[in-house]
Amino acid sequence: MKPESPLFAADPRPLRVAVLVMGDTNLFSLAAAVDPMRAANRRAGRELFDWRYVSTSGGPVPLTAGFTIPTERMPEKPGDDLLMVVAGFRIMEQATPALLARLRRLAPQLRGMAGIDGGPWFLALAGLLEGRAATVHWEDLETFAARFPAIETRADRYVISGRYITTGGAAPCLDMMLDLIRARWGAELALRVAGAFVYEPFQTAAQPQQALPAARIARADPALGQAIARMEQGVEDPPAIAEIAAGIGLSQRRLEMLFADRLGVSPGRFFLDLRLDEARRLLTDTRMSVQEIALRTGFSGQATFARAFRARFGMTASALRRTTRPVARQ
């Protein structure tokens, strides 16, 4: 059950939304926040959402897709119900004391605030999420939890905690928006909006974020989905392939045939690549030592890790770290 939110309740009135677009925002995340509003208005045949784009100083804001979006200057006294902070990269650079102070001043004047993709960082840095539950993009979960111990960081797709909403990325934002439409104007309209995007809204808020779309895989082949889920859960202490197969009621040979048929690789290769991809993410997005990363991804020896990493990525872990800045999304 979600903590009560004044926004997620039946209400015939249009919802006024200010979308705060930060520089280098992911276009997909922005679209996931805005396009459901457009589709809801169109399918309902009336204005259910009234939104505008704002930024700290107004004017064009660059997106990661390579173009800009025009914005208004964010006012000190908005006439909006909801402020959505949509962000992607350069978070710490853009989280200026002036912006954080403005968010704190705006919070009491709004019915709700939402952080989309990198947006939860801004709400957290402003001190608005202390004592609350929140989520953030799965790549940032560990760093976020360590930085904000007073926040109950969850791996959920999206979290509603009182007046504050946080989502883990673009697809979870779309799920959250469909939930908002369902709560305010009914399940039929939410399904028609989902249908406009040829999207099947089968994810719940508390569904854990995953690096791989395991839920979709599971619908196509439940056994394969179960095997991948066990691999994702066992990155730090990897079970043997035979153990994974037995755990889902298959022989090792049958599991190998399943992976070869569906994914074109053996389960052992798939599992190793999954662990190495996680190691690469930890190298670029955290300040963990190479030795700690090796242990966190299930390698008992650093030499074994080094060989596997070089074979997959064509360079050593240390060389990769030298070419990137840790905590890249920030």
From TrEMBL:
GO terms assigned for molecular function: DNA-binding transcription factor activity; sequence-specific DNA binding
UniProt-listed SMART domains: HTH_ARAC
Keywords assigned by UniProt, alphabetized: DNA-binding, Transcription, Transcription regulation
PROSITE patterns: HTH_ARAC_FAMILY_1, HTH_ARAC_FAMILY_2
Every HTH araC/xylS-type domain range: 225-323
The protein, known as: AraC family transcriptional regulator with amidase-like domain
Lineage: Bacteria, Pseudomonadati, Pseudomonadota, Alphaproteobacteria, Rhodobacterales
